[in-house]
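Data deposition worksheet. Section B asks for the primary sequence of the deposited chain exactly as it was used as input, without tags or linkers unless they were present during the calculation. Section C holds the resulting structure in token form. Section D is free text for depositor observations; keep each observation to a single sentence. Incomplete worksheets are returned to the depositor.
Section A, Depositor: J.P.
Section B:
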Amino acid sequence: MNDKVKIYLLDVFFGWYLAITFHRVFYYHVLLSTDSPDFTWNLMLPYVGVAIIFSVMCLLTGASLGKKIISSTQKGTWQNEFAINIAWILILMTFVTSWVVTKVNIIQMFDHERLNAAGRLFSSLLQPNWNILQKAIMAMIETIYLAFLSTAIALPVSFLLGFLSARNLMKGNPISFALYNILRIITNFTRSIEPLVWAVIFTVWVSSGPFPGMLALMIHTIASLAKQYSEQIEDIDAGPMEAIEATGARPIQVIWFAVVPQIVIPFLSFTIYRWDINVRMATIIGLVGGGGIGSMLIQYQMLSQWNEVGLIVLIIALVVWLMDYLSAKIREALR
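Section C:
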């Protein structure tokens, strides 16, 4: 796809976005103070028509935001200034649209009745029930083990996939490059699904408990670490690789002696950081039956036992803070 086609398509998109945002947000929500109707194909056609007209006007006048994005334009021209103004309008309209869609209501938030309810809630949270301390600590220990096992199992798989997903190592022949593209698609798709969703899937698959929670974190960790590892490999200095290849070394030898020494420290840093993330996530996936202290938290929350919830939140906060502190110290020592 050449630059002219990209520029035209971008202008069509910007025109469509301006039309739909102005009509559905400003016209309905601001002027009429009502919700906009559901999308239908009949409603989509006028938006597309406006978008095409907008893109043609940009093309004829040279005032194209798409051109501003795709290629550099001469500074100081009116077309350039117009494109910049359109960009600011898009940003402003996106902010206003977000405000309307999320139904922000500051007045309702500070209503006297709601403030009293919030005060009662925080009062209970700040008076934790210490009678469940032992039970909560045991659940937190389960959470930590859950996070550790998911990270440990994911490491060797992520390490291998990191090399197979690195473009600079896999572009040598069509077969390896095809494998690279397939793995990229799989890991990107897997990583796009949050651990919470994976936990729901595995909870249905193998019933509730820490096992599905561990599987959910493991799947997401493999995809995330594989991407981080592969990007680190792609950023290495190519000089040592070329030097070792010149000696007639085999590909495995090139990777072991030229690539691995450059990635050991970053890999360790990524791994420790991911372990830190998994400890935090392990407390969340328990909310959907993934085991650990999250399951305990949701039980008390559903019963509105806020004193017990306060103790659990306190333990989670202390453990997460401690893990964050330790992982930061370890990463600092590795630099």
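Section D:
The chain is about 80% helix and 0% strand.
The two ends are 43 Å apart (CA to CA).
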